[in-house]
Task: structure prediction
Amino acid sequence: MGVKFISTGRFLPDKILTNFDLEKMVDTSDEWIRTMTGIRERRIASDEIATSDMVTEAARIALEKGNLKPQDIDCIIVGTITPDNAYPATACWVQKNLGLKGFPAFDVSAACSGFLYGVIIAKSLLESKIATNILVAGAEMLTKVTNWEDRNTCVLFGDGAGVAILTLSDDNSDILSYNWGANGNLGELLIQPAGGSRLPASHETVDKNLHTVTMDGKEVFKHAVRWMAISAEQALKNAGLTKDDVDLYVPHQANIRIIESTIKRVGIPREKTMITIDRIANISAATVPISVDFAIEEGRLQRGDILLLNTFGGGFTWGALLIRW
Ligand code: ACO
Result:
């Protein structure tokens, strides 16, 4: 029996914020943003919704596509760093929204690697027969933790959710191998400093914008390329495959230049690389499942194809997952 992705779904808020809109908000330009990041526009969630609402919408689509009922799900895992609340977990709100209860529902905090970490956990839960149909989501509302006066960061992020439903199957589909890791020594390089036990919310933390994303862009860039490449190569090696066996490569969408440097290093052609950053920007844990969903819709991913997922994010965390779709 292999681990099969039954179906996927995505939710992107309707509101679009273009680079030209940002030109009116901070000292930036469409040309700078496109050249330096590859982003043209990003989606912004309305004030009325939270992360769990986006996951719920994406989940309903995935359930329909997979001919499943909500009652068929017996575990929910949400990769997110922008949960509805510190607790309960966003996954618990999704369970409630879908009219379900009883089975485990929990979040995974691994920043941009959250969905990938969630799939790896789901694989082991399925293989040990702890669950039969697992809903794994990557979802973020990063624009609610963005400092809209900081041009270094506010141009980079967007909102959205992507989900996949996983089961065990005796057809050809399987997760062939994976590689995952973290380096907590470098956590300070990409951090939302306040709001946790280290620096609880106060008037001062709000005044100093410490509830928003803080990062050393150059260092993040360097480590992202290095560890995405190492991780992808390790996953290929673990499966006894080479870069030439990959039909579609779906990397985390942080910056087009990170993607270009990584594919050059691993040796994957651009034609085999899924690029969505231009239309959705960086949605952290959500970028990979949303990009896979777009790939299916656009006919770029067929059953039997070899799919390589690859991520890097705050922590630092990273991972690669090799799938026979
Ligand atoms: N518009 C115009 N100018 C800008 C902007 C902007 N939005 N942002 C920065 N600049 C300026 C800087 O002020 C600087 O000006 P100066 O030379 O006068 O000081 C100049 O552009 C160069 O800035 P750098 O920060 O040195 O540019 P860099 O080449 O590092 O690119 C970037 C910045 C795009 C953020 C890059 O470092 C990057 O993408 N890093 C990866 C970080 C990332 O993607 N983080 C997302 C979360 S992590 C993840 O998802 C893996």
Q: What stands out?
A: Residues 175-195+206-324 form a domain with the Peroxisomal Thiolase; Chain A, domain 1 fold (CATH 3.40.47.10).
